[in-house]
Every structure is written in structure tokens, then in C-alpha cells.
Amino acid sequence: MFTVRTLLVGVALLIGCAPPDNNTMTADLLKEARKSLAPDKRTAVFDVQGELSGKTLTLRGELQNAELRQQLLRYIADKGYTVVDSLKVLPDPALGASTMGIISVSVANIRTKPEYAAEMSTQALLGTPVRILKADRGGWLFVQTPDEYLGWTDDNIVRMAHDEYQVWAARPKVIVTTEYGTVRTTGSPSAEAVSDVVVGDLLAVEKDAGSVYHVLLPDGRTGVLPKNSAEPFGPWLARAEDTPEKILATAKRFMGIPYLWGGTSAKGLDCSGFTKTVYYLNGVVLPRDASQQALVGDSVEVTEDFSHVRPGDLLFFGAKARDQRPARVTHVAISLGGMRFIHASSYVRINSLDSSDPDFASARKSSLLGIKRIIGASERSGVRRLAEIPYYRGIE
Fold it and tell me: Which of 280, 101, 103, 107 is nearest to 196 (CA)?
């Protein structure tokens, strides 16, 4: 049977080189498998090693789920190898039944490694559901957020079994609608604080009492939140709509908020955290990073006068394709219509691609890569709505 190894050995002999060893063959094979089955390490776990003996390949390591495991086994078998399967499928069985979690602080920091010195890659808001995939001995949890982003956190997450999670998900909730707020022990402004909150946080409602909500945090803390800081989540979700007017109004609420690498809240935002948060507050779930956001939505033609660009469109910037290297997206902004846009760069600000505009940003003009439309995007665009995620609409 013709195999990858047969091809590489033949080529090596033809050009007078030593044929590749087993380690190289295995590494190349698994690299291609990852590229085919799980190309984005930010959203899929594919940590696999192999040991080749003849035409038998022993696989070890971790995979995202059982489906990815089956895809990998088929992929390897189709290449002509016999597989010895020693793979671990997440969630780690050591977690037991508690493989779901709810964020129980206003903003949880999620890092690339289980250590405080590691890069903060994203954040998750209070009330956000996460899948818990594994834990380390230091108390850090490896989690996946609703936008499928992966990372480590030791912030306050309430671990739950699936049935407990269903009960929590079905509880009536309120969503925080002011940029910042405080849950207190009583309705008095001078009462002791229980927790801070930011726009987009979700809390369970125990009682609707006049001018306040009596709320419950996932970790069992209770308190009082003024009604002018929140709205019932069900009605809010039902009318959430990403119209150009609403997207721009929401974006401008964050004017002046400082840039924070990995930030996705009113406390600090990076460029894609800003666009993601703006759309989340209008009922849409965007992927986490700019390069991921560039893969969803409908493409918009870029013309000299920007006549095809509508308010709410996403503008992508970065390094253009060169010397057989593909273009690389590094920044994203929200169009205000035409050549003006709002984005997080040092802080949330407005700039323009028009050289005659006082807000002209020449570096952005020269690095524009493309434009995507999220509002009204086609069904196959990859754009998801909050109402499509069972947790947000309540477990049925």
C-alpha cells in the first residue's frame, strides 16, 4: 500500500539523502493531522505524540473530545497505519462529574498557562458558563468559554455536575446594563459591598423588590442590586438586536476605556475584546481574537470611496501577504460608516482612513486587509446569537 512514508523514503533516495527517521515521520504525520482536524490551538486541544514501529503507530496525549479522537484514528488509519490508542479524551476523568462551571466574580482572568506570570489571553464575565477540561495541582482549571476559547484560570469558578448546571441555567436572571455597579448587603448606598459588577454580568434573581433586585451569585453570596443597574435577562435577550444604531451606541459607551491585552470588559479592552463585547451586548457571540473574527460574517467589497461600508461592519488590519507568506490579521475595528471607525488602540477612540479627516490614522490606512459584515450576515457566515446557546436561553 502506498503511504506517506513510502513517498518520503522514495524522494530521499532519489535525491541522495538519508530517508527520514521514525520520529520525523511521526511528527510530520501528526502535524498534518492537527492542521486538518484541529488547526486552531486556541479553540481545540490536540496535544498528541506518537511512536512509530514499522507500520504500527502508538498515540499518546490529550484530545478535546471523543469526536476528535475518532477523527484522528480514522485519519491515521487512512494513511495505512495500524493504531495503538493510548489517548486521553477530555474532560479529564479525574474531575468526576463536575465538568461544568459558572464564573462567580465580576471579571475572571484566563491565561495561557496555569501561572500568574503567564499571558492573560481573555476574560469571562460573571455568570458565564464554562466547560472544565482538567485541573492542575495548584488549583488552576483549564476551561473553555462559550466562544470556544481555551485557557487557565484560578479565579472563582463554581464547579457543577451537569444536573446542577441545568438547575442554575434555568433560574431567572438579570443582566447588568450599567458600565459599573455594586451588589451590596442591603439597598442602602452605604451598605457593605458584596461584589462589584460590570456591564454584561449575569446574576440569578431571588426577589424583585421595588427599586432593587435581591440577587444570588453562583458561589452562594447574596445581595441587593439597584434596578437602574440591571434588567431581567429573558426580556433583554428577546429584544437584543444588532442593528447599526445599537452597535454604534454601545461602542461609544466605551469611549476612553483603556486598552488591556486580553481584556473583554468595561475594566479594560483589547481590540477584539472590544468588538466582541459590543456585539455580545446586542445578542451576538463573536469569536475571541481578531484573526478568528475575520473568518466569520460576510465579506464586504473595499472600494476607494468606502461606499460599500456600513456602520457596524468590522474592519481588519495587519500584515499584508508577502513572499508567499499569507496575510496576518492583528487588529480589528468597528466601522462608523464610510471611512470612520471606532476601536481599542491605547484606549477606545475614533479614527479615520480619510487623509483629510483630523482623526486620520495613516498606519491603519496602509494596513487594511478586509471588511466583514456581521449585521444581517448569512446563515453560513459563522455568526452565532446568544439565543442559540442553551445556557443563555435557559435549559429547555
Answer: 107
